[in-house]
Amino acid sequence: MDSQNIKVYLAISGALIVLFILVLIIPFTKKNPTQDKTTKSTNQLFPTSVETNPSPATANVTPVTIKAGFTGALEETIPQQIVDLASQKKDLKLKVPLNLSTFSIDFDYSTDKFVVALLDPKDQAKKEFESWRTANYPSLGSEQFLLK
């Protein structure tokens, strides 16, 4: 490199360093002019009394409730037959898959019915299933079961 170029680079970098130092130092050396203008007062004034408007004297007011004659809700009693059907269906759902000697039962959620797979001989297995169903789950009709 030329010595002329090195001198130029050193002069420019020196000037930048001096400028950088001045930018950092000058803000710290200046006094804050707002501090001189304001004087701190040690005697701060506080209000000596607080005036409030007294609330008007009223007697104890109790709200009056009006009972509604009809709200739109109808409380129906559910027939015992439907209650039995729901409880027996829930009970059998908790027991499936159920495998017995002549048939097996599973539940198909897409059709909301029980699927009964009958083993051979089918007519004897069907009779045993019907007797088992009427003895254990009398509220569940044959429409709740799909025989295969």
Write the layout of secondary structure elements.
Layout: H1 3-29, H2 33-37, H3 80-95, E1 98-99, E2 103-108, E3 113-118, H4 122-136, E4 145-147
Parallel strand pairs: 3-4
Antiparallel strand pairs: 1-2, 2-3
What does this structure look like?
- With 148 residues, this protein is an alpha+beta fold.
- It is built from 4 helices and 4 strands; from the N terminus they run H-H-H-E-E-E-H-E.
- The protein has a 4-stranded mixed β-sheet with strand order 1-2-3-4.
- The longest helix has 27 residues, at 3-29.
- The model has no long low-confidence stretch (mean pLDDT 85).
pLDDT under 50 segments (min length 5)?
none
Largest sheet composition: 4 strands, mixed
Radius of gyration, taken over Cα atoms and rounded to an integer in Å: 48 Å
Fraction of residues in H or I helices = 40-55%
Keywords:
four-stranded mixed beta sheet, 4 helices, flat
Summarize the structure.
With 148 residues, the protein is an alpha+beta fold. Helices cover 43% and strands 11% of the residues. The model has no long low-confidence stretch (mean pLDDT 85).
